[in-house]
Amino acid sequence: MTQSPPEKYFTNDNRLFSIFKREYLFVILCIICSLLFFFELGSRTFETHDVPRYAEMARDMLHTKDWLVTKYQGHIYLSKPPMLMWLIAFFSSFSEHITPLTARLPNALAGIAGVLITYYFARKFFSNRIAFLSAIILAISQKYFWHGREARTDMLFTVFVTLSFYFFYLGYRQKKWFYSIFYFALVLAVLTKGPLGIIFVISVIIAYLALQKNLSAIKTMKWNWGLAIFALTIGIWGSIFCLKVGIKPIMSTVKSELFTRVNDPISHAEPFYYYFVSIWADYAPWTLFIPFACIYAYKKWREGNPHHTFLFCWIIVIFIFLFISKAKSSRYMLPIFPALSILIANLISDVFENTILQPKWLARVTRWIIFATAVIAALTLVGMPHYLIKNIWIGAFISIGTIWMLIKLYRYLFERKKILKASLAFIIIITTAGWLVYIHQLTVQSNRDSFGPGLIKVVNEEALDWKGNIICGYQLDRDIWNIINLNLNTCVPRLTDQSELRQFLNSVDAKPICIIEKVVFDKIKEDVFGDSLKTIDIKSRKHPLVVLTKK
């Protein structure tokens, strides 16, 4: 009889190796996610519309110490609940300064969290391979990846909705105490984007239970726990908020955000077919799989598979809400991406395992889509040197070498009948590398075109030879004003007419520093410019500025 080896042989290294062998897919997933969501996260300057807006509200929280009522440029902001602003302010509180990193960090962490929730959902109800594929498909899909690096509410909302679905399903299929976490996640979704979270989640649950012919399960969802959690969180916060702001403006905002957006939107009005067009870019490189994944899910529902039915309801119900709403934006589709990724991973896994699918042509089409997407990835790889390398001959030489290597690799894998799995791995690797190259190029271009670093340098240099300085802006555009405030970590007062500007420039108590857009300065320079003043140009491709100060 074989004896077990002595306990001394089970060293820490052996245990670590055993854990890695068992969880290597999870380790690979974490490495890929860290690269996708943290690579040069804070290197790109403030530049877009929504990033400065949410960051500016968080900056106001830090400076005024009022974390209850969000304000935007001095006015109470009611369009979105404060969850994102709270998180930005929290991460920025350690340095008392909103930076591009601290503004984007909440969504980067949320992006990783969403990938991990998807991983554990698929692992719990399917398999390790499906879990890994689901998470990777989600992580490198274009819109999800991008919004994991932007300071908007949509990524946080998507993660909390996904978390709600995960713990509802655990509560429904396993233990009832999971419903308590379900309600808490629902609270977080409401605090991120309002009642829309409740509408999405509860509608999907009702549709799923109806298809399962088990609507009576609604009674077992521990609603008393939900009421208690909502009362202790949103109830208390909402009551204090209403006392400060008033109920009338809040109800007006709710009406505007929910009903007006659906029927007669002020912004984001798009034609009914908008999502059928935008999804092709938003879910790249997996877009070609979508119609066949829906057919696959429908067949699984008809077969009575409860897990696929839940994912199918998740996608269809939310899509119907988005489709009938006249206010449309591609980022609104993010909450269906986790479920869609799990379905596509199931389809691919069944093809790998040669599972008999209905209809029979579904497996064949899926294989061809994998090959076609791999070919597109290969063409991207071949063309990349021409984009990255300035010398056309060196770029051409590298491209030719890449083609030769790809042909040799294809022959090798084809002979060993590993071409299908290798093609999928190739898609994942090239897409991941492509997003990282894109982010680096975007960062370089953004920093070259932005006025932020140059403005900070000029203001600091001009303030050195004076005991104090006063900074103002003259007729600044609202978005530019936000970016200036964030870069200088202060709220720069805005002047509106030339008399105020002259009075400001004649200040004697401290050195006046006035920031003006170049197009505005060119119109007024003959009226305000004198011998005692000097101008310093801040170069920027989109928004060049002029700093006007005393000599």
Written overview of the protein:
The protein has helices at residues 12-38, 50-64, 83-92, 100-125, 128-140, 142-147, 153-173, 178-193, 196-211, 223-245, 247-263, 274-282, 290-303, 306-324, 337-352, 361-388, 392-415, 419-449, 452-463, 478-488, 498-505, 518-528, and strands spanning 71-72, 75-76, 469-474, 494-495, 511-517, 533-538, 545-550. The protein is mainly alpha-helical. It folds into 3 domains: 32-266, no CATH class; 361-449, no CATH class; 452-550, D-Maltodextrin-Binding Protein, domain 2 (3-Layer(aba) Sandwich). The strands form 2 sheets. It has a 5-stranded mixed β-sheet. It has a two-stranded antiparallel ribbon with strand order 1-2. Strand 6 and strand 7 (545-550) form a beta hairpin. It is globular and about 85 Å long.
